[in-house]
């Protein structure tokens, strides 16, 4: 019903990404989209809008003259909040050291942990704001943020507190993830099981008590935590009803994706070394495969995720930045879309679904965001483009005409 709307966008090409729409991109040509109380109230052809009896004094009409609308973009895997930087490690890697060697010498994640522990919540917020603004400016309306650079009670919770505060101040939805099991802190050297005991007994309950975490994540890798240790964290998270993500098969195959799927994980992420058994398990559990091509590119990896198998088993594929100081210091979801196409051979339509519908699924938010359909959040972008494939094709100019968050036009 357009009559009940507060605002109506008219003359739009709506790339709805709605899986029920038969056209590619879920495209609805010459449509109108009406919004009420932050939600999409109606999407219908212009002919229906023209027939509707609308009181023009009460409804704001926004004519986009044939421009494209898509759902707001969703970056479903980031480590946005940290202090310090790792430019010297970038230099060391170019002089011949590997990411693994740097980590084993106490650099890598632990160097960021040192800088992050020394920062206050206010400082963490200040450092995160320019990164957040860059994502907002390119069309991101929902963002996942992980902890994982504290590895102690105060700092892990401070990162999540900073994430929650950013969501109060900026026009963006933020999904938070407790990644306490990211690396072994120095004070637990050679005592990984004791650290996992602490994550399960102290850290997860403390985060839950303050409602700071929507999900947990574990870095399951020979460099980090074993499948058995990972499983203990996933079981504890399940007890608390938290969502589950796993950093899986990034540098080696640990059968981490199969483990994640056995806990009905929302997503398994990276997946360069994923095998067919893992793909089959993910398909059965409807666990999303979150692809992170910027980290693949930045580490100069050569082993690609098994995209054809993921397609064959119809595993939903999301695309995210993995923004972090070590393996992905490039703050652009549009760049991740481009690299998903050029490096992993996704189609531009798969890349766009990867940052909308499938990214929503990867955050357990598929009933709220990720598609343009009646009843979902009115988070969308009006683009100055001729075809939706342009969003993955070109990076460096910003074709945003309007950014709409919860039904409100936003400027940042
Ligand atoms: O997603 N793989 C583990 N964690 C991050 C890298 C973290 C870092 O190097 O600081 C990632 O690639
Ligand atoms: Fe990551």
UniProtKB/TrEMBL annotation:
<feature type="binding site">
    <location>
        <position position="77"/>
    </location>
    <ligand>
        <name>Fe(3+)</name>
    </ligand>
</feature>
<dbReference type="GO" id="GO:0008270">
    <property type="term" value="F:zinc ion binding"/>
</dbReference>
<feature type="binding site">
    <location>
        <position position="247"/>
    </location>
    <ligand>
        <name>Fe(3+)</name>
    </ligand>
</feature>
<feature type="binding site">
    <location>
        <position position="79"/>
    </location>
    <ligand>
        <name>Zn(2+)</name>
    </ligand>
</feature>
<keyword id="KW-0408">Iron</keyword>
<feature type="binding site">
    <location>
        <position position="86"/>
    </location>
    <ligand>
        <name>4-imidazolone-5-propanoate</name>
    </ligand>
</feature>
<feature type="binding site">
    <location>
        <position position="149"/>
    </location>
    <ligand>
        <name>N-formimidoyl-L-glutamate</name>
    </ligand>
</feature>
<comment type="pathway">
    <text>Amino-acid degradation; L-histidine degradation into L-glutamate; N-formimidoyl-L-glutamate from L-histidine: step 3/3.</text>
</comment>
<comment type="similarity">
    <text>Belongs to the metallo-dependent hydrolases superfamily. HutI family.</text>
</comment>
<feature type="binding site">
    <location>
        <position position="79"/>
    </location>
    <ligand>
        <name>Fe(3+)</name>
    </ligand>
</feature>
<keyword id="KW-0963">Cytoplasm</keyword>
<dbReference type="GO" id="GO:0005737">
    <property type="term" value="C:cytoplasm"/>
</dbReference>
<keyword id="KW-0862">Zinc</keyword>
<keyword id="KW-0369">Histidine metabolism</keyword>
<feature type="binding site">
    <location>
        <position position="322"/>
    </location>
    <ligand>
        <name>Zn(2+)</name>
    </ligand>
</feature>
<feature type="domain" description="Amidohydrolase-related">
    <location>
        <begin position="68"/>
        <end position="391"/>
    </location>
</feature>
<feature type="binding site">
    <location>
        <position position="182"/>
    </location>
    <ligand>
        <name>4-imidazolone-5-propanoate</name>
    </ligand>
</feature>
<dbReference type="GO" id="GO:0019557">
    <property type="term" value="P:L-histidine catabolic process to glutamate and formate"/>
</dbReference>
<keyword id="KW-0479">Metal-binding</keyword>
<feature type="binding site">
    <location>
        <position position="327"/>
    </location>
    <ligand>
        <name>4-imidazolone-5-propanoate</name>
    </ligand>
</feature>
<dbReference type="InterPro" id="IPR006680">
    <property type="entry name" value="Amidohydro-rel"/>
</dbReference>
<dbReference type="GO" id="GO:0005506">
    <property type="term" value="F:iron ion binding"/>
</dbReference>
<feature type="binding site">
    <location>
        <position position="250"/>
    </location>
    <ligand>
        <name>4-imidazolone-5-propanoate</name>
    </ligand>
</feature>
<feature type="binding site">
    <location>
        <position position="322"/>
    </location>
    <ligand>
        <name>Fe(3+)</name>
    </ligand>
</feature>
<feature type="binding site">
    <location>
        <position position="77"/>
    </location>
    <ligand>
        <name>Zn(2+)</name>
    </ligand>
</feature>
<dbReference type="Pfam" id="PF01979">
    <property type="entry name" value="Amidohydro_1"/>
</dbReference>
<dbReference type="GO" id="GO:0050480">
    <property type="term" value="F:imidazolonepropionase activity"/>
</dbReference>
<dbReference type="InterPro" id="IPR011059">
    <property type="entry name" value="Metal-dep_hydrolase_composite"/>
</dbReference>
<protein>
    <recommendedName>
        <fullName>Imidazolonepropionase</fullName>
        <ecNumber>3.5.2.7</ecNumber>
    </recommendedName>
</protein>
<comment type="function">
    <text>Catalyzes the hydrolytic cleavage of the carbon-nitrogen bond in imidazolone-5-propanoate to yield N-formimidoyl-L-glutamate. It is the third step in the universal histidine degradation pathway.</text>
</comment>
<dbReference type="InterPro" id="IPR005920">
    <property type="entry name" value="HutI"/>
</dbReference>
<keyword id="KW-0378">Hydrolase</keyword>
<feature type="binding site">
    <location>
        <position position="324"/>
    </location>
    <ligand>
        <name>N-formimidoyl-L-glutamate</name>
    </ligand>
</feature>
<feature type="binding site">
    <location>
        <position position="326"/>
    </location>
    <ligand>
        <name>N-formimidoyl-L-glutamate</name>
    </ligand>
</feature>
<dbReference type="InterPro" id="IPR032466">
    <property type="entry name" value="Metal_Hydrolase"/>
</dbReference>
<feature type="binding site">
    <location>
        <position position="247"/>
    </location>
    <ligand>
        <name>Zn(2+)</name>
    </ligand>
</feature>
<feature type="binding site">
    <location>
        <position position="149"/>
    </location>
    <ligand>
        <name>4-imidazolone-5-propanoate</name>
    </ligand>
</feature>
<dbReference type="GO" id="GO:0019556">
    <property type="term" value="P:L-histidine catabolic process to glutamate and formamide"/>
</dbReference>
